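In this supplementary section we document a worked example of the pipeline. Step one takes a protein sequence of length 236 as its only input; no multiple sequence alignment statistics are reported here. Step two produces a three-dimensional model, which step three serialises into structure tokens for compact storage. The input and output of this example are shown verbatim.
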Amino acid sequence: MIDKNKIPKHLAIIMDGNGRWARLRSLSRTAGHREGIKRVKEIVKAAGELGVKVITLFAFSSENWSRPKKEIALLMRYLNNFLGREIRELDKKNIRFLCLGRAEPLPASIQKKIKEAELRTKNNTGLTVALALNYGARQEIIDAVGDFVNDLLADRAKIKDLDEEMFSRYLYTAKLPDPDLLIRTSGEKRLSNFLLWQLSYTELYFTDKLWPDFGPGDLKAALEEYQSRDRRFGGI
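The serialised model returned by step three reads:
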């Protein structure tokens, strides 16, 4: 049974396995991505109902630009449709939307819609949905260092004041708590350059389920496993 008093505040998910799901069914990768989007809607809804405050979804990495151009174009079209249609629904449900990652080289039309979506939902007080898009943890840390150095040069910061808390304010996730639980689907057991700084004390949960097969019941199983663990954060 799920203990509502021990729900992770921040849940991060590496949504892996769309392509393999499609291949196992002799379908196109397009079909896999389409089915994966359906799971996003279901899991976001289920997470909110269970009491999760923040859910971060790894949608497109900075390394994914090496994929076939046709597949990238399709993913950008799906993203464009999501930003145009689903954001209205998120707003109605009091959900705040954030995007984590570099704006370039995303298409200008998508950059514009992201800014509009963030502005439209910024005052919402319910679940926060963060989409990691054109995201890479190493580039995030490099960008944070660059911003800190710029503040040093402009006399807006001092080296003596730099600590973990201060540095975290320069990350893409500055407005978010660190994840309590990371779920990765598809059987892979690696972080793939995702939230490397933020996952220092996060509980990790790996499942063989491919993302299009991962439903609300699987989410509950992951939360039950999380609640069975003793989080000591380096203590005894």
